[in-house]
Amino acid sequence: MSIATPSPRFTDPAVFGRVAVLMGGTSAEREVSLDSGRNVLEALRARGVDAHAVDGIPALIDALRGKQYDRVFNILHGNKGGGEDGVLQGALEALGVPYTGSKVLGSALSMDKIRTKQVWISEGLPTPKFVRIAPGSDLRAAAASLGLPVFVKPSCEGSSVGVFRILADSDLDAAEAFAAIYAGELLMEQMVQGDEFTVGIFGDLALPSIRIVPAGEWYDYHAKYIADDTQYLCPGLEGDDETTIRDLALRAFRAAGCSSWGRVDVMRDRRHGFQLIEINTAPGMTSHSLVPKAARQIGIDFETLCWMVLETSVDTAAGPEVGAR
C-alpha cells in the first residue's frame, strides 16, 4: 500500500525564530530524553535552525520569562519532571509559547494508561482487559481475577520502567516489592499472545507499521535501548491488515485528544485481533527509536522529520509566532 509522503511547509529556518530543544528533565526517562534531545538538536542545527539545548522545565520557564526563545521542541519523556503529562503544556499555553506535540488534554490523558484505556473502551476500540491497582491493593487478587499471564506496569510511566511480566504466581514477588515502594497507581492487564507493532502518527497521517521482534522473550528496556539484535520490520504488515492497523492507531490517537505527532503501540492477539496498548506523545528519537524508522520507509530522513515536527508548532493561519524575545 502506498502512502503519500508529506512535504515540508517552509524552507527558511528563520520562520522558527530561536528554538529551545527541551530535553533531560527529572523523570525516570531522563537518559533516554537526553539521547533523543542531542539527536534532534544536531538535526535542526544541520538545517540552519537557531536551536539550543535546555535541560528540564524549570530552566525552560526561567529562559522563557527572559524572552530567550520563540518556541519549544519538546523531547522530554515521562511525567514528574518529564514533559508528557500536560504540566509543561499548560505552562506553555499560559505563557503563549508555541510547542511541538499534543496539547494539555492529549498529553495528560495519554500519560495515564488506565484513563486512556477507559476512553478507548467508551469509543468501542479494542484493548486488553485490565485491573486498576491502587496503592496498597492486593496484586495476587487482581491477578486471580484476570487470570495469568499478565503484565503489571505503572499507569503513568514509559520506556518499560517498572514493567513486570507475570507468567506464574512466583513472578508476583518482584512486582509486589516494586508496588510497595511505588506511590502511584499500577495497571495490570492481560498479556496478549501474539505479535507486537507500533504505528507512528504525524498529523493526520499514520506512518507504516513496524513489527517488533526482540531476540529475547519480550520487548523490555534492554531490547528497546541497548540491544542491537532486536528486529524492526517495516512495514510490519501487508494489504488489508496494514490498512486496518494504521486506521486503528489513528482513531486511538484522536480519541485520546492527541495531535501533532506521536506513536501508538498495538498488539495482535492470535484469537482477538488487534489490541491497543498505549500512546507515546513524545516518542524517542534515539538510534533505536521507531518513528524515524517508519518515516524513512516513506522517504523522510531524520533531519527532515525533525524539521517537519517543528513545523507543527507554527500556526500558519496566524502566521509564524516569531519575535517573542
UniProtKB/TrEMBL annotation:
Catalysed transformations (reactions): 2 D-alanine + ATP = D-alanyl-D-alanine + ADP + phosphate + H(+)
Pathway field: Cell wall biogenesis; peptidoglycan biosynthesis
Domain spans labelled ATP-grasp: 117-311
Cell wall biogenesis/degradation recorded as keyword: yes
Keyword ATP-binding: yes
Molecular-function GO term, any one: D-alanine-D-alanine ligase activity
Pfam families in alphabetical order: Dala_Dala_lig_C
Superkingdom: Bacteria
Entry's EC annotation: 6.3.2.4
Biological function: Cell wall formation.
Protein name in the entry: D-alanine--D-alanine ligase
